[in-house]
Amino acid sequence: MKLKSQTFLLCLLYLLAFGCKERPHFGDKSLLVSENGRYLTTGDGKPFFWLGDTGWLLFSRLTREEANTYLEDRKQKGFNVIQVMVLHDVPSRNVYLDSSVVHGDVAKPMLTTGNNPKDSVAYDYWDHVDYIVDKAAEKGLYMALVPVWGTNVKAGKVKEAQAKKYAEFLAKRYREKWNIIWLNGGDIKGADGLKVWNAIGQTLRANDPNHLITFHPRGRTASSQWFHNSPWCDFDMVQSGHRRYDQDTSKNEKLHYGEDNWKYIEADYRLKPVKPTIDGEPSYEGIPQGLHDTLQPRWTAADVRRYGYWSVFAGAFGYTYGHNSVMQMYKFTDKKPAYGPKEQWITALNAQGATQMRYLKTLLLSRSYFDRVPDQTLIAGRNGEKYDRVLATRGEDFAMCYTYTGRNFKVQMGKIDGDDVKASWFDPRTGKTIPIGELENKGIHEFNPPGEAANGNDWVLILDKI
Question: Residue limits of the Apiosidase-like catalytic domain (predicted)?
Fold first, then answer.
């Protein structure tokens, strides 16, 4: 066979396999926004449900051995994204006492030759970051990196020119690692340091066109308030925060949603142009309600489940979980921990909520994915408020309704295809399904979840086309 014929056949096979689209830069491991703009996909077109964990101080607080333990645990529990700060402080030091930058200048990363933690001359802060990023890649985990935490920018420690040089350094160092997501910002309003945040976002995009970028905002705010139309921002993120309904009273905040994190997602979902959105920081398990008063009640596994199902059923493309002890990698030897953690990170890895998050991911991936939409018209009659609110979502062949309290509620049938449907209860605590039976797919039907109505007796009603 002549060379030209061989080349033609190879090109034909490539087109048959990948169509006219260019193959993603990282192949099947690439993360892309879905064609409908609502979700994420991998490079092979499969759905990617973001199940994140906040390991904010991973780079600075854990040894290589401890980091491996943490990452392996999160892999086994079904997490696939780790949210972590590159620089918590300016300057930052890690557990090996290696400094991140020269004289507190983010434009001057402190670099040495070599990569050996047993030889302080041939090892530095960035080698440790590299090691953990690569170890996460071995385990199939994506790393959502916050370049510099927001408080440093607000305090004036990072100027626009410095931010550009630092972002260029990060982009060039990590742009060929497939498991990177950029999380600009860091618990900060976009208005606090707007020029710096845009400089970081624009520089990352210019030097790294193949990784997704978003902005991690301040509590009770959404990145879309500042960056929804920014070309560098691929998807929106909200931080619904850690306050109860009665604690969300600040007159200076634009939004007063309390614990109703689904309202942030609902607002983002209506924006144009269409972009995916996610709650990147709801209340953490084990953290005091309201954060700062350690005598307040603590958020529980039931609460983090509620935030997860509420936000996803409202239209989010995934969910980020957090635990008070794990996010700061707390150890009993720490002299000044934040927010009064009561157990060490190594123990808190097995907190009840952390073990239950995988069931949300498994449930959403068990049905058709890209046709799913939020649809509150499924709930017939008057819906409840606050904890009694029922959130509903559906695809063409299925519908799901989440109740946090397990109260009776009515469903408008006929919203999905089919003359009849198979109904079942899904338990967010165990991931198990209890059959209800087959029902005619028309009219209004009332459903009575198992158990007595109470906060935390949460259930998902599933209706499947027969």
Answer: 34-370
